[in-house]
Amino acid sequence: MKVGVVGLGLMGSGMARRLASAGHELAVYNRSRQRAEPFSTIARIAASPKELAGWCDVVITVVTDFEAAKQVLLGPDGVAESKNRPIVADASTIAPAQSEYLAQELKKRGIEMLGMPVMGGPSAAEAGELTPMVAGGKGAFEKARAVIESLGKNVFYIGEKAGSANAVKLALNLNIALIATAVSEGITLARGSGIDPAVFVKILNSTYFKTGLSEKKGPKMVEGEFAPSFHLKNMLKDLELATATAQATGVAIPATSTVQQMFRAASNSGFSDQDYTAICAFLAKINGMAK
Fold first, then answer.
1. Which of 63, 66, 119, 149 has the fewest CB atoms lying closer than 10 Å?
2. Buried b / exposed e across 142-155, counting CB within 10 Å, b at 16+?
3. What is the model's pTM?
């Protein structure tokens, strides 16, 4: 199929390379053309989302936030201005109500949209090992299924209700933030007690209570290695979306609200462009520790 990717950040770039390697004809667009140039050997480089949409069967948008998604989909030279009517699969992490709004506005213009947030980082995207969660019309999902399955075989169709996949995504991301914070506090307590925190992580990972995060990122957290696979500022954004969604639905998530404030303080303290696990470095900083 002819597939377009709008947004070539860490995730979008990984998705684009995966789709090309899976045999799909590819077009890409990024607000900064400089970021799109490395894809010139495997993809068409579009001058606008409108131009990209005019060529594609499926358009995948993976941008930073709701305003960016609204701009590339509904703004001037956006996807909706194309005479073609591709299926849109929005992989941006936005609030359920925001996803529903975009789906409704595109529907008015004759375009079907799937909410398609994913779990997994840039390396998983490039390997085709993401976990896509999809909400929207079943017919549109079936038409786009081959493209979606190129990104990950464990595809979860949540249902036809617009925004429902985004609610699941936020629930999963708040879980990740809480786990990262718990491991960070364990490391901090061990270090403050004069114990090598690497021992704490090693013991944790030998037990039933280990997680993928504690195994893959725990040792790096101990060493103060926070090269970003997912920026702390983006985790903060997702926590803010989760708490806002909880408030709108009348649900209490007090632990998440507390962790949101911790990530806000960490972002304000200079850790925003590091990996989200740099919450560990923030805890070290406020406790006067070297790491």
1. 149
2. ebbeebbebbbeeb
3. 0.92
